[in-house]
Amino acid sequence: MTTESLVRYIYERVNTMMPLQRIRLRERDDFFAEAWKDNAIFLGLQVPFHAAHRLHAATLSEAQNATLYGKCNNLRGHGHRYLTETTIGGDYDARSGTLYDFVAFRKALEESLKPWRDRHLDLETEDFRNAPSTGENIVRTLWPKIDNRLNQQLVRLRLWETANNRFTLRRT
Fold first, then answer.
1. 3 — phi, psi (to 5°)?
2. How many alpha carbons fall within 13 Å on the CB side of residue 11?
3. Mean pLDDT, residues 105-118 taken together
4. How far apart, in whole angstroms, are the C-alpha atoms of residue 139 and residue 146?
5. What distance in Å separates the CA atoms of residue 105 and residue 15, rounded to the nearest whole number?
6. Which of 67, 76, 89, 129 has its CA 20 to 30 A from that of 152?
């Protein structure tokens, strides 16, 4: 019994009693499976990482950067405990009850985040040399790193910078 097969079973049983659009089953705080009305199955995994950055656009003056980014434009930068939530979809294998190998899923995320862990994104990586390390740019830059390791099965990527700031990209 896998999380994928269990969420599918629960969806089918409950849907006979009341119409459902989707159902999410959390196996752990950081791992879930979803079953949708169209028989689609998804897996999601949350992985945190710590990094520092400075919100600063090279194309703007110091005064413009200070006005636009406020305290986040601090010359030394500031840090966050970022939280990523990666959701994948694809072909559910009814025989094995799986959508994707969990260990490979987690490894792909860890490898994608490793160059950013405990680093200053602007000073210690090449990813933000030409673009400010805003949440929007971080999630855009992270998408291909993860998607390429997951056989282009990435369907949604969320990044929490703080409890109040979340950035989401979806495959259309």
1. -60, -40
2. 22
3. 98
4. 10
5. 29
6. 129
pLDDT tens for 119-138 read 999 999 999 998 999 999 99
What is the C-alpha separation between 45 and 29, in angstroms, rounded?
9
What distances in angstroms separate CA 106 from CA 62, 75, 125, 129, 134, one per listed residue?
40, 34, 22, 28, 25
CB-based burial label for 97 (10 Å; 0-12, 13-18, 19+): middle
Which tens digit of pLDDT belongs to each residue from 134-168?
Answer: 999 999 999 999 999 999 999 999 999 999 999 99
Residues 80 and 130 sit within 8 Å (Cβ to Cβ): no
pLDDT at res. 105:
97
- Cβ(122)–Cβ(79) below 8 Å: no
| pLDDT for position 74 | 92
